[in-house]
Specification:
The complex is a heterodimer.
Chain A (H helix, E strand, L loop, with lengths): L10 H5 L7 E4 L9 H10 L4 E5 L4 H8 L3 E6 L11 H9 L3 E4 L2 H12 L5 E4 L5 H4 L5 E3 L8 E4 L6 E9 L5 E2 L7 H7 L3 E8 L2 H6 L4 E3 L6 E4 L17 H10 L3 H13 L4 H6 L3 H7 L8
Parallel strand pairs in A: 1-2, 1-8, 2-3, 3-4, 8-10, 10-12
Antiparallel strand pairs in A: 5-7, 6-7, 8-9, 9-11
Chain B lengths: L7 H10 L7 E4 L4 H12 L6 E4 L4 E2 L20 E2 L2 H9 L7 E4 L3 E2 L5 E2 L2 E2 L7 E2 L6 H7 L2 E5 L26 H5 L6 E5 L3 E5 L6 E6 L5 H6 L19 H11 L4 H5 L2
Parallel strand pairs in B: 1-2, 1-5, 5-10, 10-11
Antiparallel strand pairs in B: 3-4, 6-7, 8-9, 11-12, 12-13
Helix pairs in contact in B: 1-2, 2-7
Classes of the chains: A alpha/beta, B alpha/beta.
């Protein structure tokens, strides 16, 4: 029906031309909807000296840091929750080899809003933290009148590209979230280029019938990639849970450089497609993830 | 484990649950098993209309018999509502006293209940790189009160000076919090494996409120890197009752997450 070209592209096309030094927004929340297929492809394509903007994250920023592709990261919250601290982020930060832009929730939200609204800064409340001391680039004191709330100014946080994972989209680029979208919509609004991976492409009719799920309308999206299990080893709402065994494998491999190099070769370097990546998992492993948490004892 | 024995995580959840009131509004952040257990247990006891909102996911008062990450999709199926984060952060990041309370964990806490989850050591080259601030500054700065729950109590956690302040408590004590321009509030209780602590009126310095069963005052003083306020002989913390443990294990944490993670 539509005369507009489809926004569906391959993984390779979606990330072609991301230059060294690009700032990269990463969507999702810890072990939910991290854009992992896109991250693996970004590593394969070789862009380096990236400035990461996870909102917040776990394995997506950590893998990019571990693969040596990041020169800095915003840190709102980077954690492996029950598996401890994010291993490569922690090591690089402690070694002083990774620049960390320390931010909090109000800071990242204010920075994204400033970018969305084309404002020079957004005010946020001054909450008496040490953040402005270590990150004067993102936190400036705003003059206020006596008796008013103390405020900080946060300049725009505007990623060159953002990588987001959602459950489904149509060929026009209408993206639907079956679960919580976390910061993904703000991240997309603030970014210069928006690339979304989805577990499945659905018809435009399906999108219209469930239009309350469309959180990113087509005009906010530049490219859509269909990658089943594209958030693996993190979860995708209603479709699969996080792969705890794989996350443990990642953390274990991160303990020694040679083991992590082998991990990267097996899961990132060698597979030439998402299908080949999934072939590294057993069918029973993937099938087991597609079970509702509610049904588990 | 018999019915009257309990794990550290279970005890901390029970101690917190007792202080929460019916009808209150709480926010539960990411990675918050003990916090979530405390709120859900309080709902089964004195607070059936206590409600909580998932910081990451925006779901309001999901009901389940087991602990689940607050970000998890499955919280949606039993929630009263779920809000998009861009709407919710106006309440979280800005609104004064929208939440009655928040419960936070920390790498370090000082004698005025300020907390650090960012780094140990120098920020540019830390000895330990922590997970970061996330919503902590706003939760401790803007909610009516907050709690600090720590699963360890030693001099590396209870320090005279934080390596990084990311959650404002009573700042430098006395009226310094209000003088800085922060809303009234601050920490109410700190709960640890050794005891329960509150803040003395006036100085707002941390005070021993009760000692957990089997713990001596000397032991607590030795494990704390600053001077605690001690008034008389502190009482012994009332241990979790059979009813509290029964509810916790059947209606809140039926899969035993607290026992596994915080033995």
């Amino acid at each position: 029906m539509s005369t507009q070209p489809s926004k569906i592209v391959s993984l390779e096309q979606a990330l072609a031309g991301v230059p060294d030094g690009a700032s990269v927004g990463l969507g999702g929340w810890i072990f939910t909807s991290q854009p992992m297929a896109l991250v693996r492809e970004l590593i394969r394509q070789g862009a380096k000296d990236l400035d990461l903007i996870p909102t917040p994250g776990s394995i997506a920023p950590d893998m990019l840091i571990g693969a040596g592709r990041a020169r800095s990261t915003v840190c709102v919250f980077l954690s492996f929750e029950q598996y401890g601290l994010a291993p490569h982020f922690r090591r690089a930060a402690e070694a002083g080899t990774l620049k960390v832009h320390e931010m909090d929730g109000p800071g990242i939200a204010g920075g994204l809003r400033a970018a969305i609204c084309d404002l020079p800064f957004m005010p946020i409340p001054d909450l008496a933290t040490d953040l402005p001391k270590v990150n004067p680039q993102h936190y400036r004191t705003l003059p206020t009148q006596p008796g008013e709330r103390r405020l900080l100014a946060v300049p725009p946080v505007r990623p060159d590209i953002c990588l987001i994972h959602a459950q489904q989209a149509d060929e026009h680029g209408n993206v639907q979230f079956i679960g919580a979208p976390f910061f993904d919509v703000m991240l997309a609004q603030a970014s210069r280029r928006v690339v979304v991976s989805v577990d499945r492409i659905v018809s435009h009719d399906v999108i219209r019938r469930n239009n309350h799920l469309t959180k990113l309308p087509a005009h906010m999206v530049d490219a859509v990639v269909e990658v089943p299990y594209g958030a693996h080893p993190t979860a995708s709402a209603s479709l699969y849970r996080a792969d705890d065994a794989h996350l443990r494998e990642y953390v274990k491999a991160s303990g020694k450089p040679e083991n992590f190099a082998a991990y990267l070769e097996r899961y990132v370097g060698k597979p030439r497609s998402n299908a080949e990546y999934l072939d590294e998992m057993s069918a029973s492993r993937l099938a087991g993830l597609a079970v509702s948490e509610s049904n588990l004892g | 484990m018999t019915n009257t024995e309990y794990s550290t995580g279970e005890m901390l959840a029970v101690l917190l649950a007792r202080d929460l009131a019916d009808g209150e509004h709480a926010i539960i952040g990411t990675n918050s098993d003990i916090q979530l257990a405390a709120c859900n247990l309080a709902q089964h006891l004195q607070g059936p209309r206590l409600s909580w909102i998932s910081g990451p996911g925006g779901m309001i008062s999901p009901k389940r018999d087991e602990l689940l990450s607050t970000a998890d999709y499955e919280n949606i199926e039993s929630a009263e509502a779920w809000l998009d984060l861009p709407n919710m952060i106006d309440f979280i990041d800005w609104k004064i006293h929208f939440f009655d309370f928040a419960i936070l964990s920390a790498l370090q806490v000082d004698r005025f209940g300020n907390i650090n989850t960012v780094v140990l050591g120098d920020h540019a080259k830390p000895k330990l790189r922590g997970p970061g601030t996330v919503g902590i500054a706003a939760l401790t700065g803007l909610s009516k009160r907050f709690y600090v729950v720590l699963t360890r109590h030693d001099r590396s956690a209870f320090v005279p000076k934080l390596d990084f302040l990311c959650g404002p408590g009573h700042l430098d004590g006395g009226n310094s919090r209000e003088e800085y321009g922060l809303p009234p509030g601050g920490p109410r209780l700190v709960v640890t494996p050794l005891g329960v602590f509150d803040f003395a009126p006036g100085t707002r310095a941390m005070r021993v409120r009760s000692l957990n069963p089997g713990v001596s005052l000397a032991q607590v003083i030795d494990a704390t890197g600053f001077e605690l306020v001690v008034e008389g002989t502190p009482p012994v913390t009332e241990p979790p009752s059979a009813e509290e443990l029964q509810l916790l294990r059947t209606r809140v944490d039926s899969t035993g997450v607290l026992r596994k993670k915080f033995p």
